[in-house]
Amino acid sequence: MSDQHAAEQTPAPSFTVETAKVLAEVAHNRQKDKLKRPYKDHVLAVGDALADFDDDIRIAGYLHDIAEDTPMTRQALLDMGVSERAVEIIERVTNRLHSNPDDYQAGIREIAEDHDAALVKIADNAHNSLPERVQALADKWPDRPPVTKYRDARPVLYAAVEVEEIRKILARVNPWLLEELDDRLDEEDTTDYENLSYDDGVPAAPEGDAAGREAPGATSSGER
Description:
InterPro entries: HD/PDEase_dom, HD_domain
Domain HD/PDEase: 35-138
Distance between the termini: 92 Å
CATH class: Mainly Alpha
Pfam families: HD
Largest sheet: none
Structural class: mainly alpha
Organism: Pseudarthrobacter oxydans
Order of helices and strands: HHHHHHHHHHHHH
Region (Disordered): 187-224
CATH architecture: Orthogonal Bundle
């Protein structure tokens, strides 16, 4: 077999979810968060939170901060085999690439224009909003006002995806936010349940129950 033919038969290397996980660990290995904790724990948690979605979204989850916090470039990611779609999601959630990097909420609105990027950012937001982390930050800087940007961002991000998608993410990374989600949905529900009725076109229920038995007092076809 010629070298040329062998090259044609060799499949292109595949950049897998597991590869993304390893790359995230290596790329963020020496970084610390505001609480001096290993930053890689955060990016791994975000990727893990997206386990119910497709590989591109999961890869983008693990690598969501790689363009923000490391020298890694778009071309380098593509050369490693990261798909165009995954790279686009990564770029969409990268703050320094937004139209106005200094305006956090404007960046959130840009992210929410893309369904897949919104999923990744919801996972990121949820992990940053863990009660233990929020309390630890408050204890470390008691004189600072409480951080509200994550809470304020959630309605914008949630509006970009399906409710069940939100539930899947929160259940994995921050179940405490599920109650907040339910409360928000209750507030948005304008249904008048007290006066709820069937449409006129819906036929009345037949006499007797669903199993075909007659209602009490009804006469069977063989009785007079």
